[in-house]
Automatic annotation (TrEMBL):
Keyword flag Nucleotide-binding: no
TM stretches of this protein: 6-24, 38-57
Region (Disordered): 151-221
Residue stretches of biased makeup (Polar residues): 151-179
Domain Excalibur calcium-binding: 184-220
Designated name of the protein: Excalibur calcium-binding domain-containing protein
SMART domains: Excalibur
Keyword Membrane: yes
Biological source species: Peribacillus muralis
Entry-linked InterPro entries: Excalibur_Ca-bd_domain (IPR008613)
Length: 221
């Protein structure tokens, strides 16, 4: 139908151009008359065709307008839905931002606690090293003392082995007495070379002059 409206518009335009042409010619020839067979049919027909075409064109435009309105309504509904979703997303973003801030605060607190624990660990490690040094020193001292004790025990064992017991001296004295032979020694030092613990009265080696404390035991230690 737009073609009919265009055809009517061209007919109207043709009639106006024809009218203009007629006036120009009439200036030169005043007796010239307007051709009613050309002007009026083209003008009236053009107007009719234009109105009919426009009416159909208006119907199409109205249909398009209705479509546009319907689409606009749909878009408005979608826009409202998107606004609602956007509001929800903004709320979620706000909640996530709060959670992020809280998490960051917790991380800072954990980092501070971790630093404190590391400092305590260093202090404990230092104290442990100090205690280990003390233990090492005490162990060394203990080892040294143990070595001294072992040395003293060795010396005591050596003395016990080299020194005759009282029983041995008694046996020697008894043997000498039973033999009845007199033993002469120049002094106590000489006597102790044979009898380290001295000799009792009645022993062949007993001499009163060597019994200085008069306890009937000569050259006792």
């Amino acid at each position: 139908m737009p073609a009919i409206a265009l055809l009517g518009f061209l007919a109207i335009l043709y009639s106006f151009f024809y009218l203009l042409y007629h006036f120009i010619k009439k200036i030169k020839n005043k007796e010239r008359t307007l051709s009613k067979k050309i002007f009026y049919p083209s003008l009236i027909g053009g107007i009719i065709f234009f109105i009919v075409g426009i009416s159909f064109l208006d119907t199409g435009v109205q249909a398009k307008l209705d479509d546009e309105i319907e689409q606009n309504t749909k878009l408005t509904a979608e826009n409202n839905t998107l606004k609602l979703e956007n509001s929800k997303l903004e709320k979620q973003i706000s909640d996530l931002t709060s959670e992020i801030k809280e998490t960051a605060s917790n991380i800072t607190e954990y980092e501070n606690n971790l630093k404190t624990l590391e400092e305590e660990k260093k202090a404990f490690s230092s104290e442990k090293d100090s205690l280990n040094e003390k233990v090492s020193d005490l162990t060394a001292k203990n080892t040294s003392l143990q070595n001294k004790v072992d040395s003293l025990n060795t010396q005591l064992a050596s003395k016990d082995t080299s020194t005759p017991t009282a029983k041995e001296n008694s046996d020697q004295s008894t043997a000498s007495i039973s033999s009845g032979e007199r033993e002469d020694f120049a002094n106590c030092t000489d006597l102790r070379g044979t009898y380290p613990n001295g000799v009792p009265a009645g022993h062949p080696a007993y001499v009163p002059s060597m019994d200085r404390d008069k306890d009937n035991y000569a050259c006792e230690r």
